Amino acid sequence: MTTKTSVMRAEIAEQPEALRRTFSELLPLRKEIEALGRETEHVLFIARGSSDNAAVYGGYLLQVHTGRLATLGSPSVATVYGSRLDLSKVLAVAISQSGKTEEIVDTMRWAADCGARTVAVTNGADSTLAEEADVALVTRAGKELAVPATKTYNTQLAALAVLALGLGAKLDPGELELVPQGIEETLAAPTDALEEIVERMVAVQGAVISGRGLAFSTALEAALKLKEACYTHAMGMSYADLLHGPIAVVDPRTPTLLMAAPDGPTLQGTVALAERARSAGSPVFGFGGGEALAAASDLSVPVPDVPEWVSPMNLIVPAQLLTERLARRLGYDPDVPRGLNKVTQTS
Predict the structure, then answer these.
(1) What is the pLDDT of residues 63-74, one digit of tens each?
(2) Which PROSITE patterns does this one have (predicted)?
(3) Helix, strand, coil shares of the chain as percentages rounded to 5?
(4) Which phi-psi region, left, alpha or beta, contains residue 106 (left: φ > 0; alpha: ψ -120 to 50)?
(5) Single residue among 124, 141, 171 that ends a domain in this structure
(6) Average pLDDT over residues 26-47
(7) Does 346 map to a domain?
(8) At what angle do helices 178-188 and 311-329 cross, to 10 degrees?
(9) Model pTM greater than 0.70?
(10) Residue 62 lies in a domain
């Protein structure tokens, strides 16, 4: 096990201030977002990797709280097939931490050419993505050096929360202030449960990570982090999809990691899944979910009690900490996973 402090761990700790800066920068842009909203009806997200997981959060948030249909785009429709679509009533939201991923830039250009209005969510203030969008939501994460995205991912969630407010979500903007406070609490909390989860995952080859609704994005991102930095065969799924067959992989050799807000309409189903996984002999590790999920889990990591719509920004932090600790426990460098670069180019 390596003992040096990783860049990834330092960047996880920078998230409270990164979120505060991002909220301060972006909340004044709600009027500009509102103006785009008056011209459009539906939302198309354009993203890859961690940004795609952020888009899953954005999709649920908009559909649940603004009444707008929101969907994940398939960039290959534009970049490989060269298809033409009528996007005249669409708000295309392109998400890229660098703003330099050519596929995302090209797809946003294609969407605009098809009649869409455009929003960029990026940490690259001077990037092509920011410069060409109708409205640029530039996050203030600061430079991110570790390859696994932590603070850039979470500030993307922050930007999408502001987007929802600008598009008419009847939510309290003041509740955003709870997010950085909650992360500070998580970073300062005892780590006994997290360390035990790390030890119990050292010898496993695969894991199931699940959540539903607004927490589904967290399950996907947690699975991606474990694959990137720990080389774990981690499967991130909605628990509804998990029950449609893949639940068969859950056994004593395959831990089940469950993500849930402290309350909300998906919590009961998450608790039921925990009970089913335990009955199959799977070690169950709960993240969030309040007392109900903790009682149904073998080990649990509490998350501050915040409203469901902002909880993914808090929920992802213990998963990031788990990834960083597990990577070092396995002898890997979490900052530079093999075969990966900070900016990935696809076509």
Answers:
(1) 999 999 999 999
(2) SIS
(3) 50, 15, 35
(4) alpha
(5) 171
(6) 98
(7) no
(8) 30
(9) yes
(10) yes
